[in-house]
Amino acid sequence: MICRQCGFENKKGAKFCTKCGSSLEQVPPVTPEKSDSSKYIIIALVGIIILLAGTIGYFVLSDNGNSDQVAEVSPQSNTSQEVQSVESDTSDENVQTQVVSSNKQSKAKSWELIGSYSGSGTGSESINVPDGQIMVKLSAYPIKNYATNYLYVSGSNGQSGGVDWGSTSKVETRSDSFSYTSSSYETFTIDYYETVSWNVDFYRYQ
Fold this sequence. Notes:
Jelly Rolls
């Protein structure tokens, strides 16, 4: 056996070198321990996978959130378009929400004619007037005076108005008006005497 220390060739089976005395027993080669670098590589790979999974999950949730927002805005957009088909058009989502609410209130109330009555001569008529805020306008033109001419409008709620002429009054058109608010139908009577023409209009604030 060849000595590893001095290179002397010894007899086969010798345990010690006869020249330098070094042990000739074969020591099993030391297997280098596995480097911890592989562990770090595995840990790094796991970390990268987790990071990628988190990033993908974030974008997926973000996309779902955006789609939910679009779904919520869409009905408002449709409603806005329906309401604005007569009013106006707009593409801004925030403006759409405001326009929908403002259009609901955009129709301002006004006095609208709900009944018009006219005639001549002498007579009386009864009519039913619906509830609400009501305004009555009346006018008449008399026959040439020789007595009292008139047009009176009186309601079951005590509201009334009218015009009249005496025997010495100027023959001309006269007008009057009054308003009231009622929660139920009211009956009005129109009385007229010796008129060439008369007219009574009923308006409701709506």
